[in-house]
C-alpha cells in the first residue's frame, strides 16, 4: 500500500474516533437537561396537588363562614319576630328563616363534597410526593453517571486530539488539504477501498484505468464519480463479480 495512503488512513481513523467522542459528548448535556426536566415535572405535579389541597381547604372555610353568616341572619330574623306585632311581618321573617335554613343545608352538602375531594387529593399528594422523590433520586443517579461518563470522554478526547496534528503533519500538504476538503463535503469516509471494481464510498463501478492506477500504487487516485481517495490492498478483489 502506498505510504501516503497508510498515513491518510491512520489520520482518517483518528478523526473518526475524535468525531465519535465529540458526538457522544454533545449528547450528554441534553440528557442531563431531560433528566432535570423530568424531575421538575414531577415536582410541579406535586406542587399542583398541594395547591389543590390548599384551595379545597380555603373553599371549605369560606363555606363555614357562609354557614355562620346564615345562622346569624336566622338569629336576627328570630329576634325581629319577637319584636314585631304584625302577622305579615312575622310570616315574612319566618319565610326568610326557612330560606336561610335551606341554604345552610345546601352549603353543608357542598362542604361534604369538598371533604371527599380533600381526602382524594391528599392521596394524590402522597402519590405525587413519592413520584417526585423517585424521580429526583433516579435523576441524581443518572446525572452522576453522565458526569462520570463526560469526564472519561473528555480525557479520552484530549488524548486522541493531543497528537492529531502530528499525524496530519506527517501527510503531504497537498494530500492533506485534499483530504480535509473531502471531509468537509463528504463526511468521515473519504479514503476508501476498491473491492469488486466499485468505489467503497459511492459504490459506483470504476473505469478500468482507475483500477489499474489503484493497483499500481504510485499516486493518489480519486473516484471519478464522488472524488473520494481510492486505495487497493491485497485482500480486495479488483474485478467486478457478476
Q: How many β-strand runs?
A: 4
Question: Nearest-angstrom radius of gyration?
Answer: 41 Å
Give the overall shape. rod-shaped
Order of helices and strands: HHHHEEHEE
Overall average pLDDT: 93
Low-pLDDT parts are none
CATH architecture of the largest domain: Orthogonal Bundle
Q: Strand arrangement, largest sheet?
A: 2-1-4-3
Strand content: under 5%
Note the gap between the termini. Answer: 27 Å
The total count of helices amounts to 5
CATH topology of the largest domain: Helix Hairpins
Helices and strands in order:
Layout: H1 3-83, H2 87-162, H3 164-169, H4 173-186, E1 191-195, E2 198-199, H5 208-216, E3 221-222, E4 229-231
Parallel strand pairs: 1-4
Antiparallel strand pairs: 1-2, 3-4
What report would you give on this structure?
The protein is mainly alpha-helical. It folds into 2 domains: 14-165, Helix Hairpins (Orthogonal Bundle); 172-231, no CATH class. Helices cover 77% and strands 5% of the residues. It has 5 helices and 4 strands. It has helices spanning 3-83, 87-162, 164-169, 173-186, 208-216; strands at 191-195, 198-199, 221-222, 229-231. It has a 4-stranded mixed beta sheet with strand order 2-1-4-3. Strand 1 and strand 2 form a beta hairpin. Helix 1 runs antiparallel to helix 2. The chain is rod-shaped and about 130 Å long. It starts with a helix and ends in an 11-residue tail after the last strand.
Amino acid at each position: 500500500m502506498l505510504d501516503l495512503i497508510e498515513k491518510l488512513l491512520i489520520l482518517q481513523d483518528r478523526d473518526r474516533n475524535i468525531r465519535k467522542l465529540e458526538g457522544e459528548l454533545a449528547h450528554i448535556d441534553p440528557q442531563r437537561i431531560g433528566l432535570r426536566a423530568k424531575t421538575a415535572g414531577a415536582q410541579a405535579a406535586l406542587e399542583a396537588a398541594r395547591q389543590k389541597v390548599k384551595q379545597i381547604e380555603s373553599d371549605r372555610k369560606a363555606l363555614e363562614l357562609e354557614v355562620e353568616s346564615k345562622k346569624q341572619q336566622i338569629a336576627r330574623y328570630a329576634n325581629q319576630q319577637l319584636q314585631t306585632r304584625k302577622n305579615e311581618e312575622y310570616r315574612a321573617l319566618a319565610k326568610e328563616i326557612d330560606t336561610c335554613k335551606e341554604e345552610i343545608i345546601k352549603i353543608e352538602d357542598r362542604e361534604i363534597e369538598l371533604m371527599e375531594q380533600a381526602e382524594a387529593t391528599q392521596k394524590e399528594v402522597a402519590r405525587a410526593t413519592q413520584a417526585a422523590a423517585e424521580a429526583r433520586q433516579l435523576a441524581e443517579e443518572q446525572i452522576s453517571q453522565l458526569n462520570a461518563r463526560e469526564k472519561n470522554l473528555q480525557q479520552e478526547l484530549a488524548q486522541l486530539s493531543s497528537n492529531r496534528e502530528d499525524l496530519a503533519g506527517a501527510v503531504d500538504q497537498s494530500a492533506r488539504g485534499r483530504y480535509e476538503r473531502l471531509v468537509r463535503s463528504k463526511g468521515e469516509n473519504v479514503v476508501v477501498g476498491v473491492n469488486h471494481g466499485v468505489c467503497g464510498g459511492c459504490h459506483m463501478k470504476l473505469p478500468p484505468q482507475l483500477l489499474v492506477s489503484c493497483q499500481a500504487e504510485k499516486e493518489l487516485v480519486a473516484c471519478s464519480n464522488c472524488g473520494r481517495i481510492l486505495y487497493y490492498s491485497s485482500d480486495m478483489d479488483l474485478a467486478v463479480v457478476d
